[in-house]
Amino acid sequence: MTLEKNKHIEPWWQPAISLFAQISAWIVFPILLALFIGRWLDDRYDREPFFILLCVGLAFAVTMFGLIKQTAAAMKKIDKANKEKKS
Fold first, then answer.
1. Residues with Cβ < 8 Å from 42, sequence gap 6 or more?
2. What confidence tens digit (pLDDT) does each residue in 6-18 have?
3. pLDDT value for 77
4. Taking a C-beta distance cutoff of 8 angstroms, is the pair 70, 24 a contact?
5. DSSP H stretches of helix in the chain
6. pLDDT by residue (tens digit) across 42-69?
7. How far apart are CA 72 and CA 53, in angstroms?
8. Cα(28)–Cα(32) distance, integer angstroms
9. C-alpha distances out from residue 36 to 42, 48, 68, Å
């Protein structure tokens, strides 16, 4: 019985690593995508700094939106766990 009960308990570090990976993904992927797309558009239309700056600016906005959304969800989850723990 105790072995079955312990199977459902996750390690103490797993939520922190999961949150770190999700937040890192919101930072890295939009910026990398913007750099590649902006450089390609600059080369294609011969407008050297315009498109890369535009794409990086848009990527920054997307990153901020994703980070705010992700951290708000994490805060709600932590608050819910604290309320359940107190009860």
1. 48, 49, 50, 51, 52
2. 667 888 899 889 9
3. 92
4. no
5. 2-7, 14-45, 50-86
6. 999 999 899 999 999 999 999 999 999 9
7. 29
8. 6
9. 10, 13, 25
